[in-house]
Amino acid sequence: MEEECKDKSLPPKLLNLIPDGREWEVKEEEDGGRSRNTSLDADEEKKLELKLGLPGVQEKKIQQQQQESSSAHSKPTTSIATTGAKRGFLAAVGAIPEGYNQGHQDNKEGCGNELTLGGENMAGERKKGCCPPPISHGSASVHRHSSSSNPQGRGAIPPVVGWPPIRSFRRNLTNGTSSKQSPERTNDEADDKAKFCKKRPLVKINMDGILIGRKVDLTVYDSYQKLSSAVEELFRGFLEVQRDLSWAESGEQGAEEKIFSGLLDGTGEYTLVYEDNDGDRILVGDIPWNIFVSTAKRLRVMRRSELPHDMSGAAPGRAADC
Amino acid sequence: MRDAEEGSESPPSQMSGDGPGGSGGESESDRWMPDLRGGNGGGGGGGRWAPPDQVLENVLESVLEFLTAARDRNAASLVCRSWYRAEAQTRRELFIGNCYAVSPRRAVERFGGVRDVVLKGKPRFADFSLVPYGWGAYVSPWVAALGPAYPRLERICLKRMTVSNDDLALIAKSFPLFKELSLVCCEGFSTHGLAAIAEWCRYLRVLDLIEDYIDEEDELVDWISKFPESNTSLESLVFDCVSVPFNFEALEALVARSPALRRLRVNHHVPVEQLRSLMAKAPQLTHLGTGAFRSEPGPGGVLSVSELATSFAASRLLCLSGFRDVNPEYLPAIHPVCVNLTSLNFSFASLTAEELIPVIRNCARLRTFWVLDTVGDEGLRAVAETCSDLRELRVFPLNATEDSEGSVSDVGLQAISEGCHKLELILYFCQRMTNAAVIAMSKNCPDLVTFRLCIMGRHRPDRITGEPMDDGFGAIVMNCKKLTRLSVSGLLTDKAFAYIGKYGKLIKTLSVAFAGNTDMSLQFVFEGCTRLQKLEVRDSPFSDKGLLSGLSYFYNMRFLWMNSCKLTMRGCRDVAQQMPDLVVEVMKDHPDDEGEMETVDKLYLYRSLAGPRNDAPPFVNIL
């Protein structure tokens, strides 16, 4: 996420890839098709569309592409989308500079290997249809992501929808908090639903020590401050109830207010963190608000004592000033 | 002769010339069915022709009561009109393998005394996000028809259907004697609907929610509190997929007043402390879904492993599952029951071999085992050494990606085959496989009915020889003479499908992904697999030619699914035109493409007596 703030030179391209805050839906587009094209630079996207077809056909295209890649490092210019054979998977845009991509790798499955894949690997993968391919061909990560790339800026892992064939509640078992293994719809399905039902995505928020989680619609707030107040409102009631009924130590009347102060600047008893697409847990407040809205998948009000060492402590630049 | 073994409604072509209705020269809508005017509503008696010999018919009905298998009943119904009528009045379980194959009205008109309905909706690939949201499979029209027709209905089982809260409420209110509700891989409902079921179905015995997608809602309903306040008849309550928090005290109380409860599977919000309390209140449980299986200390403090073990020792458990967020420290607590366990599901528990082995070594009677590949080949070896009675093994991947390390391989599969000779079902996800291991399994496990091997890297060959996996799968179909379900993967050529067609005579379900090189593959399958019911294909180089090679077989199948192959609109239209009793649905990823030659992304075709459905969303084009 930090990279995004630094990459001020990127905004135009960045914005192209994140049209009206929908990029995560786009990124996880199921039917992996044209709709992703429309959000990316369509022209570029078409050129880079790769598919697995009959081995012979594929070979030609690969060679074409490789020749052109070798001459133009950053952007493979082959147009593969010839026969209109739109597959269920789509190559990522290879030319997106790393700065943008690293923040947006889709690491849902816990395999952070996208960065290591280069054009060579992709070539190896493409060839596999026609002759016994190399055994480990570091090939595609599963779920669709529109913009994964690698340091060489080349080649892409065509994400394949629904492969391997595992139901969504069996995915993400590696992630700590998200390993609640609930058979909820994955983000992609939820986004599909959003696509059809125009429902605004709600972000779950949990608070340590409170069993019931809540949901918030981040788009109704326009700043971190407002979010913080909203969080306080959401959980204050629960805290009161739990303190009344529970075995916890006696609290003063005004204790609740104190709980929620300092959520954002790391000074309070609790602090607000969020999870992004990769399942990383990040302190809230560092990035511009609207980027946060599109990036945050889940929120948590954590006891500051439970933060990992490298996260805890008031970070100087953490004010909600964006 | 091809059989529609499971369908309660048989396809026209099969019946023509055989059935009482005669051959296919009749009207479109009633091709072969006899001219039977069913009664209105539940009885089915009004308007019926009076048979010449009422006594004979009554005797027949009494005899037919003993026929329970759908296949037998389908056969009996074809003998003559009298048998057809008698069978229709005595069929108790209505199995509809494709909810769009027949209209609710028609089903209800034919069968008079149904007590038990099973309905299946979406194609299986919907589980893997290949079917966009909103595709269909709504249960509403069925509930609307079943309600008035079968007021004595006791059981509904739905799989991959869209079920709304209103549907659940309607079910709850339509059937006063309702006993069992089973929802598998369904979606569209939430705790509101569950509350209606709990509240209104006073005789409920079974509420099984299995792998459903519970709708998100802003206001959770405390549905557990809605069960009757007196003693209930509950025998099975499975809700581990309802991932939202629930009222635990209400559950405790419910369990305490449900003396018949044998099966309880809770969600991950239940820590061991609470689990222990539940076990104490329901010592008669035989199936337990253990929730999170970690500690979340309450006023009583942290539960010790030995205390938990005491609870297990006092139980009569045969099946364990859950372990959703397991703390391996607590695993030893289940040792006391291991010797009795017939079923163990660790498929959400990321355990190493070291953590698994002490447990599995005690499970000599295990018949069903689900596990994550984190246990590795070593863990599987331990399973093989102990569980000689194993019938079902499912190994799921922790990292479901193509380039993950993968901890299980051909070594594990070989070990299993050497230890578990009675294996009937295997589902195995891996990154590396060899033909030799698969061949070994085909020889060591002759009782295999279901063989589903998923080599996660696409087009992966034998890791040692570099050859395609043709011979391995060939051996499976050759040697496993009872095989009815097969899923293939890895690098496969037409040769594999030639084997499948030649030897896979009992195969009903075949799943193909990233395989084959020419249309001959499809042809081999269509021509050879005479019992084929369900064929699902993705990302394989099959074109219209391959599709058309199946024309004369489609009426004998429940459905064909193909996505990301090389089909074009023209080919699909050809099929639609030549096969009027098929519904041919085409879905496009790129709606703005026009023309006959452009590729079809998703094809789903199925035989149907109901014709094209009227609830298709815009992205579905019915040809």
From TrEMBL, chain A:
One of its GO terms (biological process) is auxin-activated signaling pathway. The keyword Endoplasmic reticulum does not apply. Residues 200-304 form the PB1 domain. It comes from the Eukaryota. It is found in: Nucleus. Keywords: Auxin signaling pathway, Nucleus, Repressor, Transcription, Transcription regulation. Residues 1-10, 182-193 have a biased composition (Basic and acidic residues). GO terms for cellular component: nucleus. Residues 1-83, 125-193 are annotated as: Disordered. Residues 72-82, 171-181 have a biased composition (Polar residues). Its main location: nucleus. InterPro entries: AUX/IAA_dom (IPR033389), AUX_IAA (IPR003311), PB1-like (IPR053793). PANTHER family: AUXIN-RESPONSIVE PROTEIN IAA17, AUXIN-RESPONSIVE PROTEIN IAA18. Belongs to the Aux/IAA family. This is Auxin-responsive protein.
TrEMBL record, chain B:
Residues 38-48 have a biased composition (Gly residues). SMART domains: LRR_CC (SM00367). GO terms for biological process: auxin-activated signaling pathway; SCF-dependent proteasomal ubiquitin-dependent protein catabolic process. Residues 1-52 are annotated as: Disordered. It is found in: Nucleus. Residues 53-92 form the COI1 F-box domain. Part of a SCF (SKP1-cullin-F-box) protein ligase complex. May interact with auxin and auxin-responsive proteins. This is F-box domain-containing protein. It comes from Zizania palustris. The lineage of its organism: Eukaryota, Viridiplantae, Streptophyta, Embryophyta, Tracheophyta.
